[in-house]
Amino acid sequence: MDEIIKLLRLRRYSGHTIKAYKSHLKLFFEYFPSRKPESLTDADVHSYLNYLIVKKNISSSYQNQTVNAAKFYFETVLGRPRQTYHLERPQREDRLPTVLSLDEVKKIFSMIDNLKHKCLIYIIYSAGLRIGEVINLKIGDVDSQRMLLHIRGAKGKKDRYTILSPAVLTMLREYYKQYCPAEWLFEGIKGDRYSVRSVQNVFVKALKLSKIRKHATVHTLRHSFATHLLESGVDLRYIQELLGHESSRTTEIYTHVSNRNLSQIESPIEKLFKVSEVLTEYTVYENKERVSLSLP
């Protein structure tokens, strides 16, 4: 396993990918306790994947990661030619991302009091950042002259620039005065960079306090950033550049969750009733809690 990790580092794989590959290969090798890893074949991978799908009910993304880890082991570590084995990839699941409304984003923001935590969550949403990108920001990456953020070594090892909000810049300046970070824009207790888990905890706590029932994560802020830009009329090509998507097809998913066009479509039920005939208040019960839904 040490040799595998060494090769991953030499190939400049991210820490997140190294951790994932190590975990996937460890579980794969342990599935065949009486076999040496170098004796395993693509047929063994198929057997292992079948076990994961049937017994563990894994997602297609988890299956894909397992295939990627196995390919790295066979091709890079063992040096096997690609044509000597074949691994099936799962059919891609077309799931739409969860998106928060502007009011929901504002409500989540209002639940955060700590200035550092507030800056973290604000900058993720305002610039459409991945969680790994915000914790990797250094002080010099904030370009207040051009109002840009320099995102270094993002997904795919590519640098890019994204927008720096004037409101966020004002908040960052106040944060800098209070916390005086030395290298990383957001530092942990010992001066190293802030952890992924800490950012997640900040968001989860704020989401819980907001009582928003959507299944949202920190990454939902990035989805919401892109969707809100699209709804405000920003060209999809610019959104692609801001997000750092290599393919426009990845960015096009936001056209399916944007209400820019959908909100202009009238339901056929409008032809059946007059507004005065529709009840203006409904009561629903969810988890034995009474919730009043008022309609305009």
The H-and-E topology, N to C, reads as HHHHHHHEEEHHHHHEE
Query: Describe the biggest sheet?
Result: 3 strands, antiparallel
The largest sheet has its strands arranged as: 1-2-3
On the 0-100 scale, what is the average pLDDT?
A: 83
Number of domains: 3
Briefly note the CATH topology name of the largest domain: hpI Integrase, Chain A
- Percent range of helical residues: 40-55%
CATH superfamily of the largest domain: Intergrase catalytic core
Using the coordinates above, name the CATH class of the largest domain: Mainly Alpha
Share of residues in strands? 5-15%
What's the Cα radius of gyration?
24 Å
CATH architecture of the largest domain: Orthogonal Bundle
Strand-pairing-aware structural class: mainly alpha
How would you explain this protein's 3D organization?
With 296 residues, the protein is mostly helical. The protein folds into three domains: 2-84, DNA polymerase, domain 1 (Orthogonal Bundle), CATH 1.10.150.130; 102-255, Intergrase catalytic core (hpI Integrase, Chain A), CATH 1.10.443; 266-294, no CATH class. Helix content is 47%, strand content 7%. The protein is built from twelve helices and five strands. A three-stranded antiparallel β-sheet has the order 1-2-3. The chain has a two-stranded antiparallel ribbon with strand order 4-5. A hairpin with a 2-residue loop joins strand 4 and strand 5 (289-294). Helix 2 crosses helix 4 (60-77) and helix 6 packs antiparallel against helix 8 (166-179). The chain starts with a helix and ends with a strand. Mean pLDDT is 83; it is low at 278-288 and 290-296.
